[in-house]
């Protein structure tokens, strides 16, 4: 992503600036910066400050708190993709001696391991990490509060364990792996464990008076993988677009799609939100946002991307509470996506026609339910109901004559073509379901057979 702007419409830019300015005033924060990216480019940035002549821009560092967690999750997923661990592995297999070794890597990523949310006293965000030199100091005497895998319970200590897992498997410090495997390949030159000028200072704003108090900026030590990083609005926009599209230098599009998939059910009453593998998921106004929010004393941050709209937005502020940058960033996405809808790419025919694939297109019947099968790019197919609701899925081509489901009910299921001895197509098998060219086709391979007398009236 380059810093050169492709300007939005003046009316859109004014709406974005109004949202940022309003958030800075209503949130009573010393400064606030917002940025929007689309199609690989930073399209807009805007900042407000209580100090004349010191307005932050998209290159100003703020502390991002728990937005550090998606970075740690990406490092873990890289280890999985390299075959160095499995998401179903118990922590003990790679990081022995923690006392919670039965929890799995996937449970830690999705906050379903049952671990406590915080480290024992003193308040870890405002005290130096040297007070917690060992994992036992981070976990405390009662690290598990809930049964494993049964519920979502947000856990900073869980991401401390994941950071230590990365170090144990990779054999280098978490910060070194982060720089070599994410920051440098993606060009995130202004993201770092420690602040690098220009950066904002952290402040607390009195809840009942317009006065300030400086907040400490502690090195979190072992808990760094849960919330240590400093970054800029531009870098985080770039990272958000990566979480939508993937980058084979870091993670494939398929793996970031996996990260965006809900890992466990949401809490009761929170059906509009969820959590994937290191990513928060929010659904509202017909739009799904993927990203994360973060806070540490003196700072709050929000980063979201709408994959469908191709719009990413970030909001960063230097106050302990007040401006709700997650809501601000979500509004920045909405403003751009609604005011300037994405222009679709032109329709283009496939580069070549595969007769064997074309033979499979058209209507198919699962019992009496009618489905249509279409060929898409790269030899993939789509299967969807011809009328009404039903189980629609996209499939990626595998070995000759088979496809793997990517989403919906048939995610992970295999679609295969079954041919007769003479080579003609008999039916399509999808996870044991038989699809035939006619509903209950006479003589077809329908489980249980078809009544020999055929269709009849009363």
Provide an overview of this structure.
- This protein has 458 residues and is of the alpha+beta class.
- The protein folds into 2 domains: 10-339, DD-peptidase/beta-lactamase superfamily (Beta-lactamase, 3-Layer(aba) Sandwich); 355-435.
- Helix content is 25%, strand content 22%.
- The chain contains 12 helices and 19 strands.
- It has helices at 10-26, 68-81, 91-94, 105-109, 135-139, 156-170, 174-186, 224-227, 233-245, 253-259, 325-339, 355-358; strands at residues 31-38, 41-49, 62-63, 203-205, 212-214, 230-231, 273-275, 280-284, 287-296, 299-306, 311-317, 362-366, 369-375, 381-385, 393-397, 402-405, 414-419, 425-430, 433-435.
- The strands form 4 sheets. It has an 8-stranded antiparallel β-sheet, with no helix packed on it.
- Helix 1 packs antiparallel against helix 11 and helix 2 (68-81) packs across helix 6.
- One of its GO terms (molecular function) is hydrolase activity.
- Keywords: Hydrolase.
- Residues 354-437 form the DUF7586 domain.
């Amino acid at each position: 992503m380059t810093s050169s702007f492709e300007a939005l419409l003046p009316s859109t830019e004014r709406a974005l600036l109004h949202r940022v300015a309003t958030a800075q005033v209503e949130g009573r924060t010393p400064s606030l910066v917002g940025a929007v990216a689309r199609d690989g480019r930073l399209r807009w940035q805007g900042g407000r400050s209580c100090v004349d002549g010191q307005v932050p821009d998209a290159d100003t560092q703020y502390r991002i708190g728990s937005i550090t967690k998606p970075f740690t999750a990406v490092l873990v997923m890289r280890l999985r993709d390299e075959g160095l661990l499995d998401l179903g592995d118990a922590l003990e297999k790679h990081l022995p001696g923690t006392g919670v070794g039965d929890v799995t890597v996937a449970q830690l990523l999705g906050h379903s391991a049952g671990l406590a949310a915080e480290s024992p006293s003193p308040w870890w965000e405002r005290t130096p990490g040297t007070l917690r030199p060992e994992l036992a100091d981070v976990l405390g005497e009662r690290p598990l509060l809930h049964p494993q895998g049964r519920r979502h319970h947000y856990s900073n200590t869980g991401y401390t364990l994941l950071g230590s897992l990365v170090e144990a498997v990779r054999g280098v410090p978490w910060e070194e792996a982060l720089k070599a495997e994410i920051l440098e390949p993606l060009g995130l030159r202004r993201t770092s464990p420690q602040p690098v000028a220009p950066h904002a200072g952290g402040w607390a704003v009195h809840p009942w008076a317009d006065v300030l108090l400086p907040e400490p900026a502690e090195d979190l030590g072992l808990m760094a993988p849960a919330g240590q990083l400093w970054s800029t609005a531009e870098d985080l926009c770039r990272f958000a677009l990566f979480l939508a599209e993937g980058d084979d230098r870091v993670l494939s599009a398929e793996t970031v799609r996996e990260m965006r998939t809900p890992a466990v059910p949401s809490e009761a009453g929170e059906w509009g939100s969820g959590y994937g593998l290191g990513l928060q998921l929010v659904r509202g106004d017909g739009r799904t946002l993927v990203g994360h929010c973060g806070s540490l004393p003196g700072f709050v941050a929000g980063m979201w991307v709408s994959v469908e709209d191709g719009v990413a937005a970030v909001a960063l502020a230097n106050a302990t509470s007040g401006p709700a940058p997650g809501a601000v960033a979500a509004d920045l996405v909405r403003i751009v996506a609604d005011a300037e809808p994405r222009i679709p790419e032109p329709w283009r025919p496939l580069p070549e026609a595969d007769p064997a694939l074309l033979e499979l297109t058209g209507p198919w019947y699962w019992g009496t339910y009618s489905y249509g099968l279409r060929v898409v790019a790269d030899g993939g197919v789509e299967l969807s109901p011809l009328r009404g609701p039903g189980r629609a899925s996209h499939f990626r081509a595998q070995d000759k004559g088979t496809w793997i489901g990517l989403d919906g009910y048939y995610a992970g299921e295999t679609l295969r073509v079954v041919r007769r001895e003479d080579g003609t197509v008999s039916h399509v098998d999808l996870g044991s379901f038989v699809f035939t060219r006619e509903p209950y086709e006479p003589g077809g391979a329908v489980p249980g057979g078809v009544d020999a007398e055929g269709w009849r009236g009363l």
